[in-house]
């Protein structure tokens, strides 16, 4: 009798690698032994059937046009097999049904050409949802940060993954784990915020959600991309190794060790002179040897070629390919260029075959785990009809938008009473342009706009139309005047806007961004700015409306924070909506009407000045304001974590379970929060750690825990943070991560600058080295509401 632990024998006529009853490693090894050098190299390449330049303007990736000449045909690219099919859905406006058939056709060709019938992995972008025509567009990642809700992000990612899996996609190029260090950087909208723990907590849940659906997630951009000089895209990164490890790398380590992510993508920007695409210390020593990553490393588009053409660390494409593969790169995206010569490099002794095998084994492992090599798998039937913008998706998109909107200021004008007769002027470029709700990696702004399409590709209600719907049947009249556009210097429309405001009881002034790529937008990849003033002539519009004396509710629909110091004190209310997605109009209208009680909190600070900065809250003493040292005051107008709503909350009794713990101990910090208003609402309880004296300069404070809780009027909650001593760790003078004994301060409250509760504890014993151990990376939270306990998970 066959033992239960012994896999059954492979059926006659079935290769070992096609037998799903066999262990994955055995299947991969058997297939690897059958491949020629050319077939091995083929598994590390990719192909992108890009739109004809006569059909689409600009590019969807940096310097795309530079790689338009001398491209191989698809037939030539798949002659020895193919690793990835690039964006079969997300490159041109095609329906979901046509996309399914398009991908099937490509896969049939790949399998039919491959001597051993190996399919390709199909990858797509999915940062704001599946980037294809007609798919749900969720809020941008910066809005996830504002929602402060990891479980909500996980639910969203699971839905995105279900849709992608349903049409035959295997891998998604998301999420972005870059920590914001400079607000001028165009890709701030793609990030989750300026705090590494917030970024790591939310993106780890995104990874879990996407991969629960059977789609591999990809971490971007490893590492240091967002810390480039002057916030310029692709500019050099000059940070020190301590900042890199203690700030930039934290979210990546969380997503690798906790989320068990399946793929990682390199950063374009060199770090202290070394491009990550050719850095073995980053791609192998740290990522794999220290963190235990077992997936594939895929190149950002043309990053391997950039080693020669942009970084000038390689003599030719072959040298670039050899360097990158040896460093730990596994797949070249979006097309095979430098990896095309890997087989020849092995034959000529320029590359060890073991390094080639190492990468191929990783790619084949993913293909086996995805079921692509199972006996009976038919690429001609993979995927099917899927409603990519279902009612369930839209409900979730609206909830995500509603929970991400931040009410910064309110003198009592909000919410707008439904029974009061009034005329409201709705002014500004964001009011009637729903594309402003969408990030640069939405299909609308990333692809559709390049085809001369002025529409959105999905149903989106503008702010002015959503307000009209919201107040239907009430005695409220809305009058719209655009005033100015996002970047057009024409200010002739300001007079109409002023007239509308003068005749109104209230003016809702909507300003912000219109995302694009490489200078075609005010926010997005390659859309960096010299300062933090509102784009175009929008500040002039705000000033003109304020001058009328009509109360102003300023609504910002943006991808980055902008300076509001010039007019904040004259606004009756200020609402920040970070690119809230396809349901953004309804979400904004709901906040203004009061149907939605805003619960978003700032994932980035709102600056007071347009210059003299930028800086984030995560800074040491001398990074902040120091009278007598500098005339520049970098303190924000509204700090990280700030946000108010239509409910009020009190904070009482920060209680620590112990005053002293060992260097591997845990202290529980309990906070009591009460809803002191007459309306149910949500509060984001935030816990910050300070290290008053350390062997290296430390941030004044850092977020170490948070929990978003919902309370009925008069209801209280006891929020308990379980803080392990590892959460105090930092990189010491010897460049080893340590837990250093000494006194630490914990503060709790509703924002990084509003922390009414404080207590201290001491870590005792010798210095603990945590460099070579899997240290505790999260702060689990328990929430006890009334007489029932709810587990809030690791936040």
UniProtKB/TrEMBL annotation:
Function per UniProt: Catalyzes the hydrolysis of a non-reducing terminal alpha-L-arabinopyranosidic linkage in ginsenoside Rb2 (alpha-L-arabinopyranosyl-(1->6)-alpha-D-glucopyranosyl) to release alpha-D-glucopyranosyl (Rd). It is not able to hydrolyze alpha-L-arabinofuranosyl-(1->6)-alpha-D-glucopyranosyl (Rc).
Fibronectin type III-like domain mapped to chain residues: 683-752
Pfam families, sorted: Fn3-like, Glyco_hydro_3, Glyco_hydro_3_C
Keywords associated with the record: Carbohydrate metabolism, Glycosidase, Hydrolase
Pro residues composition-biased segments: 1-11
Record-given protein name: Exo-alpha-(1->6)-L-arabinopyranosidase
Superkingdom, taxonomy of origin: Bacteria
InterPro entries: Cellulose_deg_GH3, Fn3-like, GH, Glyco_hydro_3_AS, Glyco_hydro_3_C, Glyco_hydro_3_C_sf, Glyco_hydro_3_N, Glyco_hydro_3_N_sf
Gene Ontology biological process terms from the UniProt entry: carbohydrate metabolic process
GO molecular function, one term: beta-glucosidase activity
């Amino acid at each position: 009798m066959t033992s239960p632990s012994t896999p059954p024998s492979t059926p006659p006529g079935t290769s070992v690698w096609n037998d799903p009853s066999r262990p994955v490693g055995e299947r991969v090894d058997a297939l690897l032994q059958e491949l020629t050098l050319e077939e091995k190299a083929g598994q590390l390449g990719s192909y992108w059937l890009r739109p004809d330049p006569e059909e689409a303007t600009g590019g969807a990736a940096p310097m795309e046009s530079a790689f338009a000449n001398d491209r191989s045909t698809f037939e030539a690219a798949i002659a020895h097999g193919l690793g990835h099919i690039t964006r079969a859905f997300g490159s041109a406006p095609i329906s979901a049904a046509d996309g399914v058939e398009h991908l099937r056709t490509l896969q049939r060709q790949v399998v039919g050409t491959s001597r051993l019938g190996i399919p390709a992995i199909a990858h797509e972008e999915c940062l704001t949802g599946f980037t294809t025509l007609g798919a749900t567009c969720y809020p941008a990642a910066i809005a996830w940060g504002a929602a402060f809700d990891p479980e909500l992000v996980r639910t969203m990612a699971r839905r995105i993954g279900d849709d992608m899996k349903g049409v035959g996609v295997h891998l998604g190029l998301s999420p972005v784990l870059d920590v914001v260090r400079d607000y001028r950087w165009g890709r701030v909208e793609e990030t989750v915020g300026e705090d590494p723990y917030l970024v790591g907590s939310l993106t780890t849940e995104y990874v879990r959600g996407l991969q629960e659906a059977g789609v591999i997630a990809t971490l971007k951009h490893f590492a240091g991309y967002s810390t480039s000089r002057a916030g310029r895209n692709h500019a050099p990164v000059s940070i020190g190794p301590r900042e890199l490890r203690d700030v930039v790398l934290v979210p990546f380590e969380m997503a690798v060790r906790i989320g068990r992510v399946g793929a990682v993508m390199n950063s374009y920007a060199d770090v202290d002179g070394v491009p990550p695409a050719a850095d073995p210390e980053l791609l192998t020593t740290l990522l794999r040897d220290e963190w235990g990553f077992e997936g594939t490393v895929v190149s950002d588009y043309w990053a391997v070629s950039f080693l020669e053409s942009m970084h000038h660390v390689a003599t030719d494409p072959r040298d670039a390919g050899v360097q990158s593969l040896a460093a730990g790169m596994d797949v070249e995206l979006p097309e095979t260029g430098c990896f095309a010569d890997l087989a020849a490099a092995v034959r000529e002794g320029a590359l060890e075959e073991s390094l080639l095998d190492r990468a191929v084994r990783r790619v084949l492992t993913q293909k086996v785990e995805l079921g692509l090599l199972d006996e009976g798998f038919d690429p001609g039937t993979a995927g099917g009809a899927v409603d990519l913008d279902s009612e369930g998706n839209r409900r979730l998109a609206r909830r995500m938008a509603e929970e991400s909107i931040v009410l910064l200021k309110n003198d009592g004008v909000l919410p707008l009473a439904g029974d009061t007769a009034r005329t409201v002027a709705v002014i500004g470029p964001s009011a009637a342009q729903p594309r402003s709700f969408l990030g640069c990696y939405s299909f609308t702004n990333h692809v559709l706009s390049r085809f001369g399409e002025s529409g959105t590709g999905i149903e989106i209600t503008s702010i002015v139309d959503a307000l009209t719907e919201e107040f239907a049947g009430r005695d409220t009249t809305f009058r719209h005047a655009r005033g100015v556009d996002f970047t057009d210097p024409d200010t002739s429309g300001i007079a109409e806007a002023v007239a509308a405001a003068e005749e109104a009881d209230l003016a809702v002034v909507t300003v912000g961004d219109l995302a694009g790529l490489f200078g075609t937008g005010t926010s997005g990849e390659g859309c960096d700015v010299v300062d933090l003033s509102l784009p175009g002539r929008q500040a002039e519009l705000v000033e003109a409306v304020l001058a009328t004396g009509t109360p102003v509710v300023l609504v910002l629909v943006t991808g980055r924070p902008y300076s509001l110091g010039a007019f904040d004190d004259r606004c009756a209310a200020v609402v920040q909506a970070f690119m809230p997605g396809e349901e953004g109009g309804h979400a904004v209208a709901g906040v203004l009407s009061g149907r939605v009680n805003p619960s978003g909190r700032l994932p980035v600070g709102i600056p007071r000045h347009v210059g003299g900065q930028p800086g984030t809250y995560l800074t040491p003493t001398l990074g902040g304001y120091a009278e007598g040292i500098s005339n520049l005051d970098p303190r924000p107008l509204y700090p990280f974590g700030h946000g108010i709503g239509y409910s009020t909350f009190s904070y009482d009794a920060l209680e620590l379970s112990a005053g002293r713990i060992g260097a591997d101990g845990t202290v529980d910090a309990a906070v009591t929060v009460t809803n002191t208003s007459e309306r149910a609402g949500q509060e984001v309880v935030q816990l910050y750690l300070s290290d008053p004296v350390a062997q290296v300069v430390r941030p004044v404070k850092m977020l170490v825990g948070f929990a978003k809780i919902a309370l009925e009027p008069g209801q209280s909650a006891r929020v308990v943070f379980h803080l392990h001593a590892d959460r105090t760790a930092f990189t010491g003078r010897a460049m080893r991560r340590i837990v250093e004994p000494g006194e630490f301060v914990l503060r709790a409250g509703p924002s990084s600058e509003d922390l009414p509760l404080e207590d201290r504890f001491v870590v005792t014993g010798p210095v603990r080295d945590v460099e070579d151990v899997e240290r505790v990376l999260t702060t689990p939270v328990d929430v006890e509401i009334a007489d029932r306990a709810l587990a809030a998970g690791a936040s």
